[in-house]
Amino acid sequence: MERSIKYLWILPLILFGCSQTYHLADEQVKTYRITEKTVDNAEDSDVEQMIRPYRDQLASEMNQMIGLVASPLEKNDGESTLGNFVADAVLAQAELITGQDLDFGICNSGGIRIPGLPAGPLTRGKIFELMPFDNYLVTMEVPGTVIAELFERMAATGGWPISHGVTYEIKNGKAQNIMINGKMLDPGSSYSFVLSDYLAEGGGNLPFLKDYSYKNLNVYYRDAIIEYVNLQHAASKSIDAILEGRVINLDN
To answer: What is the value of pTM for the model shown?
Structure first.
């Protein structure tokens, strides 16, 4: 069983929230170095008494089962079952939040921080491990020429996760035959898509996106995935994904 100590990095968020400022009333201050050994052996110590309620609350929340994974999801370069799941989940949630049809959703490969999800119960904590960053879910609408540049950047690193309905090939490190919802990419059209605010602000080597505005959906990218899993579970659906040729790397 995984120890709850792995989530102690979240304790400062619980103890010292950003919206409040705390001041020490007593000039006599004790300092502690919190390590796994400290917590394991500190049942009667001041630090154990201080953090135990928060640790127990956090462990309870992180160990909560939110869904079931039908078969193992794995992260690989280019298209992967884990990447397909993430991209499809954020697209579905963005469309639910906005009430609009979007053309696609993307996730940079580096944003997925675990190698895979095993089959079986899926906990809230596992999604925190998958996507630990507090990045927001945002939508953008940009010209087709910008979309073409986006696909070029994705192709240069072997391809990023992208949602169902989109396919493209990579040849000599370049993107080609980009199909979006059954139609070839049109440089003269505009496209709407969902991504993280990190990418929208130029992260992931996408500086050209900074020239365009985005709409912040005020939901963390990670929380959108959690809510998607919750909704699937409520509908008695398990989490599953297959490889379907979204990213075809002809260089391999």
So the answer is: 0.79
Phi, psi for residue 249 in degrees, rounded to 5: -95, 105
Q: Which CB contacts under 8 angstroms, 24+ apart, belong to 96-101?
A: 97/137, 97/217, 97/219, 98/139, 98/215, 98/217, 100/192
Q: Is 126 helix (H, G, I), strand (E, B) or coil?
A: helix
Mean pLDDT of the chain: 85
Q: What is the C-alpha to C-alpha distance for residues 133 and 156, in angstroms, rounded to an integer? A: 24
Please say whether the beta carbons of 146 and 209 come within 8 A. yes
Residues 151-184: tens digit of each pLDDT: 999 999 999 999 999 999 999 999 999 999 999 9
Name the β-bridge partners of 191.
142
What is the pLDDT, as a whole number, of residue 60? Answer: 73
In order of their start, the domains of the chain are 4-62 (no CATH), 73-249 (3.90.780.10)
Q: Is residue 243 scored above 90 in pLDDT? A: yes
**Distance separating alpha carbons of residues 24 and 90, to the nearest angstrom:** 42
- The whole-angstrom separation of Cα 88 and Cα 228 is 10
The average pLDDT across 218-228 equals: 97
Kindly provide the b/e burial profile for residues 81-112, where b requires at least 16 CB atoms within 10 angstroms of the residue's own CB.
bbbbbbbbbbbbbbeebeeeebbbbbbbbebb
The span from the CA of 109 to the CA of 160, in Å, is: 6
